[in-house]
Design brief:
The chain has eight helices and five strands, in the order ααβαβααβαβαβα. It is α/β, with parallel strands linked by helices. The protein has a single domain (29-198), classed as 3-Layer(aba) Sandwich (Rossmann fold). α1 (2-26) crosses α8, α3 (57-72) runs parallel beside α8 and α5 (106-112) runs parallel beside α6.
Length: 199
């Protein structure tokens, strides 16, 4: 009897989750996705670098984005130069220990970022202190910014040059992160087609 109840609840939750995720994905603005793709192509044309940042699950998405953009597209003649600032644990822990966790990305950007580079920040809440600090540092160094957010968008949606917002309820981390990873595959999937035509 208990097993039947669990099976019924799993069935109901699965139906709800898939429907909710589908609705959220369908409500992401195509125009915002277009703007994101265009700025990535502009950055590639300038041979500048795209830096991705995020915390927790968003850090994994940032690293996944870099893999798909820089290596997965196999554009060896004219690659996307992409770096995740989430992956060097010795640097992250040194900055966190010496300056504070809110500076783990901005301190890296102070060293690495050049005018014309692009910073892509991924954050469900859009309010993480280290994300906002990094965006402000990028602006100080005259670099462009993209904020990929969820929930209400937070400060990230407001202060980024380009916003790609995933409209979820507050606290819906699972579907927010699902949709952010979908954006990775949508964007790089399109770029793979574009580049094959270009070449």
């Amino acid at each position: 009897m208990q097993l039947n109840k669990i099976n019924s609840e799993v069935d109901q939750f699965s139906t709800y989750y898939k429907k909710n995720l589908s609705n959220i994905i369908n409500n992401i603005s195509n125009k915002e996705i277009e703007d994101f793709i265009n700025i990535l192509l502009q950055t590639r044309k300038k041979k500048a670098t795209v830096y991705f940042i995020g915390n927790g699950g968003s850090a994994s998405t940032a690293s996944h984005f870099v893999n798909d953009l820089s290596i997965g597209l196999k554009t060896l003649g004219n690659p996307f130069r992409a770096v995740s600032l989430c992956d060097n644990m010795s640097v992250i822990t040194a900055i966190g220990n010496d300056f504070g966790y809110e500076y783990i990305f901005s301190k890296q950007l102070e060293v690495l970022l050049k005018k014309g580079d692009l910073v892509v920040a991924i954050s469900a809440s859009g309010n993480s202190k280290n994300i906002i600090q990094a965006i402000n540092t990028a602006k100080d160094k005259l670099s462009q910014t993209v904020g990929i957010s969820a929930f209400g968008g937070g400060m990230l949606k407001t202060i980024s040059d380009i916003s790609v917002h995933v409209p979820t309820k507050e606290g819906e981390y699972g579907v927010a992160e699902d949709a952010h990873l979908m954006l990775d595959h949508l964007v790089t999937g399109y770029l793979a087609k574009y580049i094959s035509i270009e070449e």
